[in-house]
Amino acid sequence: MAKERIIAAENSLVASEATFETAKLNKERQISLDKNGLTSTRNLELALLEYDRAFTEKKRNVAFLKSSKQEYNALESDKNKIDKDGKASISNAKASYASALSEIARVNSEINRINTTISRQSTQLVKSPKKGTIFRLRVNEDTEMVKSGDSIASLVPDTGILAVELLVNGN
To answer: What is the pTM of this model?
Structure first.
């Protein structure tokens, strides 16, 4: 629509320039005729009035064309800004999408690690040859590897007989 307004302003300017040139020629002719006494004062005044009106119309059309071009440039600038903002939003969305994919891959890796740990732990079963209560662990819980048959704890057996171990210093 702004382009159509520029075209209309250009056409109006062309028409007003033609009217102005005609009024200018008529004014010069009427001045020349008036010097020789061949025209009435009224005709001269009308020619001067038409010249002034055509000049003002030409200036108005120049201003209208200028404002139409400025409006078009402002709209183009707004369009370019919106286009850049849209592209920035798309880039931001793509970056967020890539970040989300990275996070999904990280979480899937963590899930696989946890599943592996659970799988390993489910195959590690420790059985005691007797019923009882663990008195002392002989290995660190998460840091030592043991083989089958290695002693890993001291047990106090569950029996109906109570016993006491008493150490006496001989001195």
So the answer is: 0.57
